[in-house]
Please model this.
Amino acid sequence: MNHIVTVQDAVTAFADFMEPTDAELNAIEQEMPVILADVDLLDAHIVTLDRTPTEVDERRIRRARRRALAARVALVNRVADTSLPGGAA
Model:
């Protein structure tokens, strides 16, 4: 006979460790402009899913792509500035 066992103890045993650390929260905060720019890009694409994109839609998508790319570049530059010791390039 097989006994059915609950996994409640195994699941909740790590509950204290499930919270994000300060370093993880800082990383999320640093990446937030990229996340928001990607959401705007997705919104621009979602608008055009059920119809042919108009010229205004295409401009909105292009602007959202440029903002997403600019946010990624800014993030990479911030990370590169903080990770290079002594200002070496």
Q: What stands out?
A: The mean pLDDT is 85. DSSP finds three helices and no strands in the chain.
